[in-house]
Amino acid sequence: MAVAEPGDEHHPYPSPFPMPPPGSVGPPPEYAALRRSCPLARVATPFGAPAWYVTRYDDVRKLLADDRFIRPTINDWPTIDDRPPDTAVAGRGPGLVTMMELEGPRHAALRQALAEPFSVRATRRRRAALRATADRMLGQIAADGPPGDLVSDFCEPFPLLVMCELVGIPYAERASFLATADEALGALITLEGGREAGHQLRSYMVSLLERHRRAPGEDILGSLVAASDRGAVDEESVLAFGLSMLVAGYRTTTMFLANAVLALLAEPDRYARLLDDRALLPTAVDELLRFLPVQNGVIVLQTREDVILHGHTIRAGEAVLPVLAAANLDERTFPEADRLVLDRRANPHLAFGRGPHNCIGAHLARTQLSVGLEALLDRFPRLRLTGEPPTWEGHSPARSPLTLPVTW
Fold first, then answer.
1. Over the stretch 334-368, which tens digit does the pLDDT of each residue have?
2. Which letter does DSSP use for residue 233 in this model?
3. Is 402 helix (H, G, I), strand (E, B) or coil?
4. Which of 69, 118, 216, 328 is deepest in the core (most CB within 10 A)?
5. d(CA 213, CA 207)
6. Distances 85 to 26, 202, 247 between C-alpha atoms, Å
7. Do the beta carbons of residue 271 and residue 33 sit within 8 Å?
8. For residues 287 and 282, what is the distance between their CA atoms, to the nearest angstrom?
9. Which value, to the nearest 10 degrees, does the dihedral of the CA atoms of residues 201, 203, 204, 207 take?
10. Phi/psi at 353 (nearest 5 deg)?
């Protein structure tokens, strides 16, 4: 891989963006070499604009909490050859602004309003309901008889239904936002399509908040609308939360769940070990979160000022991609980093980020993964892959199987 040399910060030929091998979650083969010899690399994003690609654990961990970096909105992402953002897009308003782009007092007020519904205590209270949902879905799979597709019948609908019921997004309306949300999440590949999707999602969320205002419910959006009417949080912050849930509030969990099941079944001894030792599940879930490189370079940061890192000057306004998936495989932090060690105890992975924008749904995501796997183990102790290979979408750096054929 050709990379910029120290003192040549704006190398005219950025390297290709590291991508997982076809038909897999990855990791991209470049990770190890970059961590070893080029921890700050100049790459071309899939949509063509240059960015700095950061792969070592210590660097990524620091960047995530460094207030010299912000999370730009999708309308403000750097473009090819440093062109300014498209004026037609910028003129349409804020578009896709999620919790990740909020800063300062507005962000703090929203996090405070969400602290209780996403707390450990609240998540524990929901565990029985989550298990009942999982059991109901898996019961239908069992009734339909083998073989089955765990992605379409469980790994996709389970986290989505949980999110919809908790947040107050009508599950019955999923056909109207799922494809658009995935388009927005894939903005690193199709930037303009992602921007347009962001505007469509914003329009949907504005209308949904109005419905919650007219008919308040006992869900998070209902409580946030009431808080907004009291002046505790502003309307744009409530919109940002809703858009966060549409774009990422369930999708990363569906991807991790599908990849976790595949990783366990690909080596049946792993599945058998969890069958024999359910107490290992919480530790195994964190190890799966560390080991599975689902989010390959999908966080985009932007510098507020010039920053020097590894002998390079990252200029104000430039894009920086702290790669969580690469950091979580760093052998400097994790012994046997390239192995899935289900009983790994010291596991400071960064799957949920760090700093003021760490994932507010981390407790819920861990619980969903744990409950989903536990329910699978209980219902299907003889679960195994059919031999028919899973299908994959091959263009995105964020990967999970589109199908997962299994039998039992």
1. 999 999 999 999 999 999 999 999 999 999 999 99
2. S
3. coil
4. 328
5. 10
6. 32, 19, 22
7. no
8. 9
9. 160
10. 80, -160
Query: Which tokens go with 186?
Result: 């894939």
Please give the share of the chain, as a percent, with pLDDT higher than 70. Answer: 91
Average pLDDT, the chain: 90
* Radius of gyration for the alpha carbons in the chain, expressed in angstroms and rounded: 21
pTM: 0.91
- AA letter at 34: L
Distance linking the first and last C-alpha atoms of the chain: 44
CA distances from 389 to 24, 149, 386 (A): 11, 11, 8
Residue 348 in tokens: 């400071």
Q: Is 255 helix (H, G, I), strand (E, B) or coil?
A: helix
Residue bearing tokens 């104000």:
316
Question: What tens digit of pLDDT does each residue of 73-119 get?
Answer: 877 776 665 554 454 444 455 567 888 888 899 999 999 999 999 99
> For a pLDDT cut of 90, what percent of the chain falls above it?
73
DSSP state string for 174-230: GGGTHHHHHHHHTTTTSHHHHHHHHHHHHHHHHHHHHHHHHS--SSHHHHHHHHHHH
Q: Which two tokens stand for residue 2?
A: 């050709």
Sheet (strand 69-70) strand order: 40-44, 50-54, 319-322, 301-303, 69-70
